[in-house]
Amino acid sequence: MSPNTPSSSAGGAGSADSAAPRRNSKRPKYSKFTQQELPACKPILTPRWVISAFMLVSIVFIPIGVVSLFASRDVVEIIDRYETACIPDNFKNDKLAYIQSPGDKSCNRTITVKKLMKQPIYVYYQLDNFYQNHRRYVKSRSDSQLKDPSSENDVSSCKPEDVTQNGTSIVPCGLIAWSLFNDTYDFSLNNQQLPVNKKGISWKSDRDSKFGRDVFPKNFQNGTLRGGKLLDPTVPLSEQEDLIVWMRTAALPTFRKLYGKIERDLQPNEVIHVTLQNNYNTYSFNGKKKLVLSTTSWLGGKNDFLGIAYLTVGGLCFFLALSFTVVYLVKPSSEHIT
Prior knowledge:
Elements: H1 8-19, H2 47-73, E1 77-81, H3 95-100, E2 106-112, E3 121-128, H4 135-139, H5 143-147, H6 175-178, E4 184-189, E5 192-194, H7 204-209, H8 241-247, E6 255-262, E7 271-277, E8 288-294, H9 305-330
Antiparallel strand pairs: 1-8, 2-7, 3-6, 3-8, 4-5, 4-7
């Protein structure tokens, strides 16, 4: 038998294999995408390209940082911390007893304008060490109840401020609404009332979409322990803008919320007299309260972080570009990749 002639046994095995059912393969269907055979760009980062990229970033970032810093420095801001100053001398050692006692808690403060403040001047209250982002606090609200009067009894997520002692629902329910900020500020200048416009201080989308025009407060702050500000039961929630501003919870423990707007210019050296009601309890958690008057720029309020960040990144890229340039000039690469 010729060695090139296949044996009958081999032929039999081959025919048997072809006749057997084909096994399912886990191999993926072939395509240029799955096999990574698509056209690709593989740039070679030569020293010149790296130096140029760092220099370009620095040329763009440094001017943006300078402009941002100048815009922030143009904002005029007055901050008055008052939670300790508004405690009578006989309660200095027991501030919590003072804030929990009944009676008038008015306090007079004076604010001196140091630079021209052009209208509108925004009035904020600032709270420190107040964690509005606590999980149970954030969940203690009913969005459906705030929007739809037919969902008045949807208070399952509002505990412990969900229903009164007789079982009727609280509107608005939950800890967020219950802890509404209740300090008030009255301003006067040259023995004349300085009006504060409290209209339009909340987001329009919140007024139109999240708070109903036919939903009114009901049984609010009627419990044995009062949390904060009272709400007018004859005014719909969509017009209670202090509540709307407060219900948009802050992400950080130090935050500001808009109280109103002063719609007139304040000249340098003018003295503003503030009569405030120191009602809000921040003493039980060592919180701070501040009254803030601030103008704005085209970039927003006073915040140096954005400008400093741009300058830092731009300066670092400029330093790296100079360093790589010196290294490249002192010891140029002799390798050429073709």
